[in-house]
Design a protein that fits this description.
alpha+beta; Rossmann fold; Dna Ligase, domain 1; D-amino Acid Aminotransferase, Chain A, domain 1; 3 domains; 26% strand; binds adenosine-5'-diphosphate
Length: 447
């Protein structure tokens, strides 16, 4: 087991990882920018190292500074959290070259999944169902037309190097295709320095369903069921559930089994998430994230397993603490991402939190790094906390969520709490009846 882990992140996830390290009796080092000197994770860590000024590129993305902080403090492993360097293959390689363990998969696996064409090809080879479309990059228009005619309109053109929902264009008919192809390539070139694009069938009313997987480092793979993250705004997840209200037990174990086997065959090590669009009973792979996800606590709530403990165990060579048959799903969990944003316009609302009071009681978990008097710096993303609620079934979970939202107090800044108070009373949400476009339509109606 590791002696000392350096946490290369900030906010609620830095605190989340720190808690897991403390439970395992591992010393902690955190790195922080000058803007985060007062952050909770800095206060609670055994050691902290200031690695630079506020902008992420000079601090949380500064590989040299982070490696130097490991050397100075004698950390033998790094947990990258999510975002920042968590899916940076070069960072994983550099740490390996310094004999420091990256708590995550190999640089090669990060690289494969970071390239969308390569990821899709790999998924298909491993027997994961993919969206019908081109086999690789498409350059000329004639080929694009032939493929689109074969899979049927509408189609979506996506950038191979894409991310964060950028570089995607939908073509409803053949007439749109030429312009969509051109625009997607130009945008991809400008945004990612790589203009390779590919074509997929455009699914009209899918849900976003993702499977939590783990490779144990010894060639075995397991799945921890799925999460439904269909409630999104601008491709950003807002509300997540486990299990999905749309799947039955047979579908769950079928798709979970396919993913676990793929992870084993790939020789993958650590936590990963295989994301699908789901429509009319069919799953279509869209991408794999090679890290811990923001929404991992809903999986923890229904399985009772600490996924960060498992990540640390696997990275240290100790394997998983559970086998597939030990992973049982108990009840239902929902997570609300609470952002420091105006609940109508979603413009960021940094500033000082004058009063912060979190709900409590059975089945309630709040993961947050903020406190009364905390000043939210304007440099980073606006997530200030996650409310995770567990119940024996979805109805009980929703009842408890409504009560927890009523108790939650954040004064001094605007937050998205009012949006969740609206959603929890909505009939479609109560029925679990929503797809990936539902929230955008709902917000447009409310304006
Ligand atoms: P990114 O890495 O940029 O987030 P993804 O491939 O994960 O890109 O896609 C982001 C979102 O775009 C999906 O969650 C979905 O809303 C939409 N999308 C992607 N591919 C399709 C498709 N074939 N049909 C319909 N919507 C899609």
């Amino acid at each position: 087991m590791f002696q000392k882990i350096l946490i290369a992140n900030r906010g609620e996830i830095a605190l989340r990882v720190l808690r897991a390290c403390k439970e395992l009796g591992i010393q902690t080092v955190v790195v922080h920018s000058t803007a985060d000197a007062d952050a909770m994770h800095v206060r609670l860590a055994d050691e902290s190292v200031c690695i630079g000024p506020p902008p992420s590129r000079d601090s949380y993305l500064n590989i040299h500074q982070i490696v130097a902080a490991c050397e100075i403090t004698g950390a033998d492993a790094v947990h990258p959290g999510y975002g920042f360097l968590s899916e940076n293959a070069k960072f994983a390689d550099i740490l390996a070259a310094h004999n420091i363990t990256f708590i995550g998969p190999s640089g090669d696996h990060i690289r494969i999944m970071g390239d969308k064409i390569e990821a899709k090809r790999t998924a298909k080879r491993l027997g994961i169902p993919v969206v019908p479309g081109s086999d690789g990059a498409v350059t000329d228009e004639k080929e694009a037309k032939r493929i689109a005619a074969e899979i049927g309109y509408p189609v979506i053109i996506k950038a191979s190097a894409g991310g964060g929902g950028r570089g995607m264009k939908v073509a409803l008919t053949e007439e749109d295709l030429e312009v969509a192809l051109q625009t997607a390539r130009t945008e991809a070139g400008a945004a990612f320095g790589d203009d390779a694009v590919y074509i997929e069938k455009y699914l009209q009313k899918p849900r976003h369903i993702e499977v939590q997987v783990f490779g144990d480092g010894f060639g075995r793979g397991v799945h921890f069921g799925e999460r439904d993250c269909s409630l999104q705004r601008r491709h950003q997840k807002v509300w997540e559930e486990a299990n999905s209200p749309a799947l039955n037990a047979e579908e769950r174990s079928r798709i979970g089994g396919i993913c676990a086997k793929a992870i084993a065959d790939l020789g993958y090590s650590g936590a990963g998430t295989i994301e699908f669009l789901y429509e009319n009973g069919e799953f279509y792979f869209i991408e794999m994230n090679t890290r811990l996800q923001v929404e991992h606590p809903v999986t923890e709530a229904i399985t009772g397993i600490d996924l960060v403990h498992e990540q640390i165990r696997v990275a240290s060579g100790g394997g998983l603490s559970v086998k597939q048959e030990d992973i049982k799903f108990n009840g239902h969990a929902i997570e609300c991402r609470i952002n420091a944003e105006d609940p109508r316009t979603f413009t960021p609302s940094p500033g000082t939190i004058t009063h912060f009071h979190t709900p409590g009681g059975l089945g309630i978990r709040v993961d947050s790094g903020v406190y009364s008097g905390y000043k939210i710096p304007p440099y980073y993303d606006s997530l200030i906390g996650k409310l995770i609620v567990h119940g024996r079934n979805r109805v009980e979970c929703m009842m408890r969520l409504r009560r927890a939202l009523d108790e939650f107090v954040v004064d001094g800044i605007k937050t998205t709490l009012p949006l969740f108070r609206d959603l929890v009373g909505n009939a479609d949400i109560a029925n679990g009846d929503y797809d990936i476009h539902w929230l955008e339509k709902y917000l447009a109606k409310e304006e």
